[in-house]
Amino acid sequence: MPEIGSTLQEARMRARIDISEVEATTKIRAKYLRAIENEEWDMLPGPTFVKSFLRTYADYLGIDGRLLVEEYKQRHEPLPDQAELQAIGPPREHRLRPPRPPRVPRGWLIGASVVGLLIVLIVLGSIGNDNGSTPVATQPRHKARPRPQPKPAPVVPTSAVLGLTPTSDVYVCLRNASDQLIVNETLTPGNGTRTFKSRRFKLTVGNSSLTMTLNGKRFSVQPSPTATTFAITPGGRRLLTNDNAC
C-alpha cells in the first residue's frame, strides 16, 4: 500500500484543494495537516489524535479513513506482548465441607411431637377446669399496618444535553449519535460554555482542563498522561480505550 501521507497529499492535489481550505473545514491546524502528509508523526499531539486527524482528513477528501487508520496502527503502533495476553487465574481452593450432624430417626421426631402436643392439651385442660370456663381465643387488638407503596421508578431522559466549559487550552473532538463531527478544535477559556444535544456522544479531550455538565449534573475530567475518551448517554458517561477515540 502507498505511504499514508502521499496518499492524502495526492488526493488533495488532484482535487486542487489548498491546505488552508482543509484547515477551515476540518478545524485541524495546517501545521498538523502538513505533518500528516510528510508523515512527521512526532509533530502531532499523540497516537490518539493522529488516528482522529487521519480519519477526519480522509473523510474530507473522500477516502476511506478506516483503511488509513488501520495502516497507521500496523506500521507505527507496537504489538502487545503475547505473554501479557495470557490470563493467569488463581489456583482453585478446595474447601472442606463441615461434617454433617448425625440424623435423628424420623420415628423419634414424630413420637416426640405427639408427646409434646399431649402435654400442651393436658395443661390447657387443667387451666380451663380451674377457672370453671373454657379458654376462648381472643381477637388481636392491633390492626395490621398497610404495606408501604413502592416508589415509582425515576424517569430516564431520552436525550443527552452536554455542556463543555474549558478552564484552560484543551483540544476537544466530539461526535454525535449520527457519527457526525461537531467539534474538532482547541477550546480556550473566556468564551463560556458550549452546549450540545443528541441521543449519545463520543468525546475525546487532550487534557483535564475541562468541566462538563450532562443533563444538569456536573462532571470533571481526571488528569491523564494521554488523551481521554468518553461514551456519553442520557444515563451517564463511561471511559473508552484510546482505540475508540473520535
Walk me through what this model shows.
- There is one protein chain.
- The protein has helices spanning 4-14, 19-26, 30-37, 47-61, 65-76, 82-85, 106-131; strands at residues 160-166, 170-175, 181-187, 194-198, 201-205, 210-214, 217-220, 228-233, 236-240.
- Among the domains are: 4-76, lambda repressor-like DNA-binding domains (434 Repressor (Amino-terminal Domain)); 160-244, Sandwich (Immunoglobulin-like).
- Helix 4 (47-61) runs antiparallel to helix 5 (65-76).
- The protein is of the alpha+beta class and 246 residues long.
- Strand 2 and strand 3 form a beta hairpin.
Describe how the helices and strands are arranged:
Layout: H1 4-14, H2 19-26, H3 30-37, H4 47-61, H5 65-76, H6 82-85, H7 106-131, E1 160-166, E2 170-175, E3 181-187, E4 194-198, E5 201-205, E6 210-214, E7 217-220, E8 228-233, E9 236-240
Antiparallel strand pairs: 1-4, 1-6, 2-3, 2-5, 5-8, 6-7, 8-9
Helix pairs in contact: 4-5
Our Rg estimate from Cα atoms comes to 36 Å
CATH-defined topology of the domain at 160-244: Immunoglobulin-like
Q: What is the CATH C-level name of the domain at 160-244?
A: Mainly Beta
**Strand ordering within the main sheet:** 3-2-5-8-9
* Low-pLDDT runs: 82-94
CATH architecture of the domain at 160-244: Sandwich
Number of strands: 9
Helix/strand/pairing class, anyone? alpha+beta
The major β-sheet equals: 5 strands, antiparallel
Shape: elongated
Q: Count up the helices.
A: 7
Strand content: 15-25%
- The H/E string reads HHHHHHHEEEEEEEEE
- Helix coverage percent: 25-40%
Distance between the termini: 24 Å
Q: What's the mean pLDDT score?
A: 81
